Amino acid sequence: MEGTEQSMNAEQQFKYFAFISYNSKDTEWGKRIQRKLEHYRMPATLCSERGWERTPIKPIFFAPTDIQPGGLDDELKDRLRASRNLIVIGSPNSAKSEWVGKEIEFFHELGRTDKIHYFIVDGTPHSGNPDTECFNPIIDKLGMPEILGANIHEKIYRFPWLNKERAYVQLVSKLLGVEFDSIWQRHKRQLIRKIIAWTIGAIAVLAALAWVWAANQPFDAKVSLNEASVQNDQLPPLQDAVVTVMLENESKSDTIHAIGQDGVFNNIPHRFMDQEVKVTLTCKDFLPLDTTLKLTHDVTLNVYRDPSVYGHVLFGIWDPETENFIPNVTVEVAGQKAASNKEGQVELFVPLENQRKTYQVKAQFPLYNDIITMPCGENDVVEKM
């Protein structure tokens, strides 16, 4: 009983759970091992049985973060004495390191050879080749028993990352003196759950990114025209309508050559989707359009004929004998009657449904040329015979 208490008291004197011995070329591995071990969570039932915390492997001494300047040799010896275990990062770098050899030798002289644990990150154990050997030759020099290190390159599983995790758990089991399988199976289950969670999370993130990407992609707007005025097949069809869309400081234009054809506005920034924008349209024989509308993938604009182009009839009645215009002459155009004014000018308006490109003029006397071509104006005349 007394021996057990002394052993427990001795265990409590250790300041560090482990000391990491490494070559400077393997510094990143040292940092990684320190982080993994200090944050490794043990099963709650095992911690309850052993009286451990859930993260029992801490603190870990790692020189780059823990060592203080001055008196390096003495300080390292003090840290080694204060460490319960020695973790040696096995690699051809550490195998060639005189400093790593001294740390192993000193720990061996403390009588803690059974607490030396190798974590092999590179090289081959007992290869006999200095370029590949991962064990420091001090082991053979001191006649130390064969050390079976945790090797990240041991090909137990198909996936290298899983073999690496297995090596970490091997090191944990050796440091704590527990059976490997008692924590490895649980560790694998946790890995599977993490992988599933990461996969779901990654899918969710990718889906969100895809949505954001799609939501911010430029879009094409198609503009079609609908002639909303009274249909009249006797008049020329719509031709070459110029449509312009105003986008802040930029404008995009396209020409629609006929009803039934579409104008396409490419690469419109997505922020304009479903936003009010200004649209203008100009087209011969049709009323100009200047409006605002909600911009979408498909836009339809109602267009109206300018009724004055073929409906506003204006001409004079000329008497070639007197070389004067004739006032007060009653005429008929497109079924509508009108009389020339005192200047001999006739002016009338033909409704859109009755409009034509040309009109025949009938008067109370025969006319030499009785056809008016639209559009017309005060310089157009019909002559009395």
- The CATH topology annotation of the largest domain reads as Rossmann fold
Order of adjacent strands in the largest pleated sheet: 2-1-3-4-5
CATH architecture of the largest domain: 3-Layer(aba) Sandwich
Can you tell me the residue ranges where pLDDT is under 50 for at least 5 consecutive residues? 1-12, 68-72
Number of helices: 11
Overall pLDDT confidence: 90
Secondary-structure content class: alpha/beta
Number of domains: 3
Radius of gyration: 48 Å
Shape: rod-shaped
First-residue to last-residue Cα separation: 147 Å
| CATH top level class name of the largest domain | Alpha Beta
Helix content percent band: 25-40%
Number of separate strands: 21
In CATH, what is the homologous superfamily of the largest domain?
Answer: Toll/interleukin-1 receptor homology (TIR) domain
Major sheet size, sense and barrel closure: 5 strands, parallel
